[in-house]
Amino acid sequence: MAVRRVILYEAWVRLKRRFETSFGATRERPAILVRVMGDDGEEGWGEVVAGEGPWYSYETYETAIHVLRDYLIPIMIRERAYNPKDFIEAARRVRGHNMAKAGLEHALWDLEARRRREPLWRLLGGVRDRIESGVSIGIQPSIEELVKIVSNHLDEGYRRIKIKIKPGWDLEPVKAIRRELGDIPLQVDANAAYSLAHMQTLTKLDDYKLLMIEQPLHYEDLLDHAELSRRLKTPICLDESITSPRRALEAYKLDSAQIINVKPGRVGGHQESLSIHRIWYQEAGRPLWIGGMLETGIGRGHLVALATLPGVKYPNDISGSNRYYEKDLVEPEWRVEGGYIRAPERPGIGVDPDLDMIETLSKRRIVVDLP
Ligand code: OSB
Ligand code: MG
């Protein structure tokens, strides 16, 4: 079975609240949606998680559109690589641009699962029908505000709190949360804002019984993280530094981290995520969890599917639609109940894109009809 048309939508969505990390803040953001339409009338959807600017990674929504339109879609067509595994093999010629690759690969996975009338999570090898939901909280204007937000999310049932930190917003917020809210499941994410020169602060953070410290050091580093791992009791979790299965293997061999956050966009899609799962969990026996990039409900569906894998041992950065958006782009919206999101039994990602809403929010639409 083949694909007859691909549509890229540049939809602009507005977060309920501004989301600030050590690398910048965002409120209005582009969601690049990839729609593949099969010759059998079935279709599949993916989402490119590249941001407006090259802050989290070098990719931006514009580079992703360029690479998809001018390289990845033509490669898919030329090689007739319409199933996700063939596509990702053919796409290896393109170096990097993992978020662009993942957007199209995910759409092909969703198409494949819908054609088989199977939930995507089962096709990927998932083993649970609900996933643990955590919440990632940006840097706030004040400690009081932060504590209030954390407390509200705990009341909503979220099973773990992650707060963003940066030099100057680290010990005080953590101390305040511990003082006000006690021994809650808490972790921090620095998005690469520190170096080994910050050892004093990092050592103090080590005393707060955090579940983990996520990506404290440089975004490409493995060596300094290995050094830091040896010096702290708190587990180190890598995010930005793990961009491929090869990097995961290196991180294991160097002991750079005890845990990794797998974001399929960052590593080039589901197939690459499964390879990382094999290396990190099945071979090395280490735990992982699934990270997020403030996706709309479409990208979130792909995250939910991956979070059913057996190596996922911590709550994920996969929250309910209402934590991000006034109204999500999918029906039904993603809901957290008692701290969990149900993995849908419906085929594919298990939710349907709201086409009217997507058309309305799209500033640009690129249609590629296959010959
Ligand atoms: O580092 O995990 C991160 C959002 C954008 C860019 C990087 C990160 C994040 C998050 C949000 O932490 C997680 C979510 O989607 O809820
Ligand atoms: Mg992170």
Outline of the structure:
With 371 residues, the chain is α/β, with parallel strands linked by helices. Helix content is 37%, strand content 22%.
Distance between the termini: 14 Å
Shape: globular
Distinct small molecules bound, one entry per kind? 2-succinylbenzoate, magnesium ion
Q: How are the strands of the largest sheet arranged?
A: 5-6-7-8-9-10-11
Question: Structural class of the secondary elements?
Answer: alpha/beta
Strand content: 15-25%
Helix proportion: 25-40%
What would you give as the CATH superfamily of the largest domain?
Enolase-like C-terminal domain
Written overview of the protein:
The strands form four sheets. Strands 5-6-7-8-9-10-11 form a seven-stranded parallel sheet. 37% of the residues lie in helices and 22% in strands. The protein folds into two domains: 131 residues, Enolase-like, N-terminal domain (Enolase-like, domain 1, 2-Layer Sandwich); 221 residues, TIM Barrel (Alpha-Beta Barrel). With 371 residues, the protein is an alpha/beta fold. The site of magnesium ion (MG) has 7 residues, from loops.
